Amino acid sequence: MELYQQLKQLGLEEKCAKVYLASLELGPDTVLNIAHKAGIKRPTTYVILEELIKKGLISITPKQKTTLYVAENPKKILIGLKQKERIFEKISPLLQAINNQKASKPKVLFYEGREGVIRAYDEIFMAKKILFFSSIKEITSEFSEIVQKMAKSAGPKHIMVKDILCPYPEDLAYARKMARLKNYQIRILPKKYKPFSINCAILENKIAIFSYFKKELMAIIIENQGIADSFRTLHQLAWKSAETFKN
Fold first, then answer.
1. Close Cβ partners of 131 (under 8 Å, ≥ 6 residues apart)
2. What is the Cα–Cα distance from 192 to 195, expressed in whole angstroms?
3. How far apart are CA 205 and CA 107, in angstroms?
4. Which of 26, 29, 190, 209 has its CA at 20 to 30 Å from residue 215's CA atom?
5. Sign of CA dihedral 227, 133, 184, 208
6. pTM of the prediction?
7. CB atoms < 10 A from the CB of 57, how many?
8. Domain architecture of the chain: domains with CATH
């Protein structure tokens, strides 16, 4: 690897590195000679020299009517790197705090309309384990194909499902069908509780909420481990209170 390429790795652009090396070899010299040595056009060399002066790597030595440019000691590059390192060490905690804050923010996706809701269901059917708060009656009123797809996906894909259903006839009929699958566990919401008006799916690190209120079809998927874990705990509590389904 040529020396100017190694300087590039230290933060100098290729032309800057070539001009600095040319000046370093020549000692105090004119822009014309430095440009010739670096193999760069003179107008461009002027611009680069001004940039290197700002970086503290080149200085000017006036000599009668001619301006001479001289490369500073290479140790200045090391000093500059150490200064950058100290600055980075100071701001690193702030940068990390910003990064952590961003990472902790939930990722929220909205799906609207029939096609949007179907896409959201397709996404959750890719999970290996799903916890449901469901109302099959609500789903079939708008998406009979979703119920069929759920039945087809759960069996062949061996998706582990725990589903808390409402005591509607549609839900109970669905429960009788799905209870034949070993990987599909079902419990029924006691009649003393108000039935679900939404459907909720809890996955490993996200939750999906489906609403069909007043025919306004909508789904929201929230990706956040803390939120998913909290909903998982709520499902565990509800599961204990729900009634065991007897086929």
1. 161, 162, 163, 201, 202, 231, 232, 235
2. 9
3. 11
4. 190
5. negative
6. 0.57
7. 22
8. 3-72 (1.10.10.10), 107-244 (3.30.870.10)
